[in-house]
Amino acid sequence: MLAAVREYVIDEYVEDDSEVTYDTPLISGGIVDSFSMVSLKRFLENKYNISIPDDKATPEAFDSINKICVLVKEYIG
Amino acid sequence: MAYSDKTRGMYSDILTGLQDAGLFKMERYIHSPQAAEIEVEFPTGSSLKKVINICANNYLGLSSHPDVVKAAHEGLDSHGYGMSSVRFICGTQDIHRRLENMVSGFLGTEDTILFPSCMDANAGIFEAVLTKDDVMISDRLVHASIIDGIRLCSAMHDTFKHSDMAHLESKLQLHHDRRLKMVITDGVFSMDGDTAKLDEMAALCETYNALLFVDESHASGFIGKTGRGTHEKYGVMDKVDIITTTFGKGLGGASGGCVSGRKELVEMCRQKARPYLFSNTIAPPVVSGVIKVLEILSANTELRDKLEINTEFWRKGLTEAGFVLKDGDTPIVPVMLFNAKLSQDVSRGLYEEGIYAIGFFFPVVPQGQARIRTQISAGHEIHHLEKALDAFTKVGKKYNILGKSKQEIIEMYGM
């Protein structure tokens, strides 16, 4: 899951050769702006067949690939 | 006292921080009307210096055009100075509606509503026509006023990579389930001077049943064969659902803006857009001036044609001199310097040579993309541009950047 989310994040948001690790701050680090978070949420919901409530999809919860995967696992089965 | 020493100190620290970071904005006082040549007091308190202005949005040279000034005088005499009311109480004159009809005719739209500024038009439009069931999909480089308008709207918001049509299409597919989808872009992007691919965007909007919104602030009056805008350039005059634009740039340069487009959407603004409902509209002398501007531009294409010739001359001259430019064909011609300090040094050097042009750097443009943004006008004569080219060449030689590639400039000065 980590690798798949990382691939999506790089493809969707990184437009130069910046390094993105599983712990790189995405929102607070300015890689993903809060306006563009919605597509990341919808990607996760579609790929893992889950529904993440809006109040759980916070900038803090989406701030690194590790944190995102922790959140997603809560909603998978 | 509520404004305590502690509070004052807090703000002083913030302002000092801006100065330390090189982000503090200074105004330069211009003592003459806006034109190709202006008289500037800079630094404050110094004697006036006559310089050639190549950083105004005065694309058509109409800011101080004698016919426009005369029309504004006449409007002042016939319709007064101010309205002291918002539009729907007692703040609408015959000339306001006349201007709205003229704008619709000029842009080829169904209806138009005036706003105090295009900033206000962009702040009001989205909230007035969209709900939480809808989605706004915007280019990642749209103007700050659009971003503010989007923030005020309850609709879902997503972005697509700048001018990346495949990415836009993927977003239209991703959000297929929303009640309404609106694709949002600038017609001409103000920092790079490139144009939105409106023909491709309009086709995608048709395929995916989406509305198309275009901010034409840096296009109205001069882009396209008769100056109608980016939608004319790309042959999609009837495919754009909402246009916002300003009267504060090419169209006279005073103030005011509008939403123009499908009549129901315009009417929604008249009923619901808060900057329209809770603010006076454009003052009568300015309305009269803009009416004259549209009369001038509708009579013939002389000014936009001259601007096109000037732009070609300028772009060719800078390229031959050996500067790195952003590609494009609009009057916004960014001279790339990449390094923030270099952009400030070149700007200062140009001023010493009698050329007024400003350096832009992060956060106004991305890190490592500092530049001098030059803007050409129909008010420029070739001798102005020749003098400016001489100054650019002299300053470029001083900093040893002529004929150098991006990589070479970055190696010399850093990002």
Kindly describe this structure:
The complex is a heterodimer of chains A (77) and B (415). With 77 residues, chain A is mainly alpha-helical. Chain A has a single domain (2-75), classed as ACP-like (Non-ribosomal Peptide Synthetase Peptidyl Carrier Protein, Chain A), CATH 1.10.1200. Chain A is 45% helix and 0% strand. Chain A contains 3 helices and no strands. Chain A has helices at 2-13, 37-48, 65-75. The longest helix of chain A is centred in the N-terminal third of the chain and has 12 residues, at 2-13. Chain A is globular, with a radius of gyration of 11 Å. Chain A starts with a helix and ends with a helix. The model of chain A has no long low-confidence stretch (mean pLDDT 88). Chain B has 415 residues and is an alpha/beta fold. Chain B contains 16 helices and 14 strands. In chain B, the strands form 3 sheets. A 7-stranded mixed beta sheet of chain B has the order 4-10-9-8-7-5-6, with helices on both faces. In chain B, strands 1-2-3-12 form a 4-stranded mixed beta sheet. A 3-stranded antiparallel beta sheet of chain B has the order 11-14-13. The termini of chain B are far apart. The mean pLDDT of chain B is 96. The interface between A and B is small, with 8 and 12 residues.
